[in-house]
Structure formats: structure tokens, C-alpha cells
Amino acid sequence: MENNWGLVVLSILEEVTTPYTIILCEDFEYRIDYDEWNKLMEEFIDRDVSYMPIGRLWKYTKEEYWNGYEGGKKLWFYSASNSPGSSLSVDAIYKTELLREKLTDLMNYNSRRFPINLPHHYEDIFHEPNGVTRWGDNILCAVPKEVILMHKQEETETRLNK
Known about the structure:
Layout: H1 5-13, E1 20-23, E2 28-30, H2 34-46, E3 51-53, H3 57-60, E4 70-71, E5 75-79, E6 92-95, H4 96-106, H5 120-125, E7 140-144, E8 149-151
Antiparallel strand pairs: 1-6, 2-8, 3-6, 4-5, 5-7
């Protein structure tokens, strides 16, 4: 197997035929049931959302961000140019084609802080000013109104980021 996270995921995407792709890490606690997930995804698809981070929701669901969002039933919506986050998240739901484009673009970057075999490399490269806001006003993004999953390192940074 290739020792390049982006290349591995890009090769997996060659097999994906769905309009959306979700990337989930294994070390998350899920706080949503099947029916709630389906309602959330129905709204996501109906609104033609292109990107929805699902990690670090403890941060982006806080009331301090609500004024920058448009409210839905289960989701908050915002244009990419008004993203509350500073980087593209690995833990997210993407339009498959958009994820494919970003991973192809990732191949043009060498390692900075993290080795290319880690997903952290993706988030490091696609951090502002090269992050979400670069997509502009025409890309609709969303964040769940509720924390639907939580990383074990609740409200902390990983050791790699320190």
C-alpha cells in the first residue's frame, strides 16, 4: 500500500459512485441514531450542501457562531467564504467530486508540519488562506445544530498539533 494518505484516499474514491463521500475516523463517539441521521442527510441533500465538517462540532455549534449561519431544521448553513473553521476537515461529508479535486490538488504539496502518510497533512495544507473560504460564496456548507459525534480528545488539540 502507498505511504501517502491522500493518494490512498484518492484511489479509494475511484470506486465511489455516490454523489457524497463521508470520511469518519474510528475514534469517535456517535451521538445520533439512524432516524436522526436520515433526517439530517435529507436536509443536507435537499439544500445541495457541498461540505459539512463533522469533527470539532463542540466548537462550531456554539451560540457565538449562530449569527453567521442560516438556520435549517437540523443544520446551520453558511457560504464557504463565511466559514467558521480555518481548515478543511478530514472528518467531513463532501460532494465526492469536490473531495476528489482537493485530494488531486494535495498531490502538488510537500509535507510541512506533518508527514504525507497522515490525514493531518491534508488539514495542514488546506488551512486558511488555502482552506474553506477559498471556495467563495457559491459553495454551500453546513454544520449540524447538535454535536452528532465527539472525538475522544474532547475540546483539546491532539499531541501532533502541539
